[in-house]
Amino acid sequence: MPQPAGQHTVRRHNCALVLDAIADSPGLSRAGVAARTGLTKATVSTLVDRLAAASLVREQGPQHRAGPGRRGTSLSLSPEGPHGLGVEIAVDHVATCLVDLTGEVRWSAVSPSANRAQPAGRVLTRVAKAVRTALGEAAARDVTVGGVGVAVPGLVEASTGLLRRAPNLGWRDVDVPAELRRRTGLEAEVLVGNEANLAALAELRAGGHDGLRDFVHVSGEIGIGAGIVLDGELYHGTRGFGGELGHFPVSSRGPLCSCGARGCLERLAGQDAILGRAGAADLPTLLDRLEDGDRKAAAAVRAAARPLGTALSSVLNLLDVPAVVLGGTYARLFPWLGEPLRAELTGRVLSAPWQPIGVLRSPLGTEAAVRGAATAAVHTIVADPDTFIADGVLP
Hints:
This protein is an alpha/beta fold and about 400 residues long. The protein has helices at about 5-25, 30-35, 40-55, 120-140, 175-185, 195-205, 265-270, 270-280, 285-290, 295-320, 330, 335-350, 370-385; strands spanning about 55-60, 75, 85-90, 95-100, 105-110, 145-150, 155, 165, 170-175, 190-195, 215-220, 225-230, 235, 325-330, 360.
């Protein structure tokens, strides 16, 4: 049977309510928070004092507003409060970063790492080393890590956090949170998510696309993932397995994919496919050739726009989403990929004659996934701040 809420439960709920209001509208006063939440001014004042004592909220002087009357004290999230630690386990690198409550990246690092087809334990040992380095950086800055987010290139079961399958890593059924805790002694919550979904989350929060609330963020790396944002919310799918754009079948006779099927998008429009057609050893070489006007390199990028447009047009026709944001490798190739892709979508999306399709470049580029992982960790702090307030700070 449901139990009545105790005093601590009510305080915990109200604390989250107050912090969420401040996060949504930085600069609110205590009176503004009370009006927004429906709590009494006295309750809000007590909770704000608790949040400020725990470095979750800071006071920034009188509000800036027009009109007569007494100005309240402006409240905002504190950059000195608990940070989110983001980790990205990619095919060819491991990235980490620290993000404060305001969304600012305070520290980041990227280590090249040949993770493809390596045993999960070996790679996670490297990841644990990177996490320990990030924890050391947090300690040097005298900030607490309130949560850890991990971006992985595969299917993550939302209910358990298990990485069920990562074809490009060759992993199956890996309990990433448990493995990282065992190797690092982490006590903070560890969240695991698909890298494309977390990249879309970062794009939503920090991409700066003038309030764009409906889009598909496409992460083009070795694999291809899509994060779908609808009405300002990330769509995960029923079990968390959505967004696997790279495994859309675009050619029934195409090359064999790491997933076991033939003709998947990533085998025709992923980074490896583009490099192979261009005859380039790596992405920096390809970019240099593109900058020099190399025709073969430009043709390789244009060729990728056709299958990519085929797959994305299906998504846009189904969901009626008005824009595509290109991230990862695609963001770096945007000057040569953007227009061919826009032309492909214009010819395939039924609504295009009345609503032109936006094809945008992510300003976050290859940093989006690790930033999104840290952002997800920050969200857990804002959603339940009482967890990070020491007992006895204030009554």
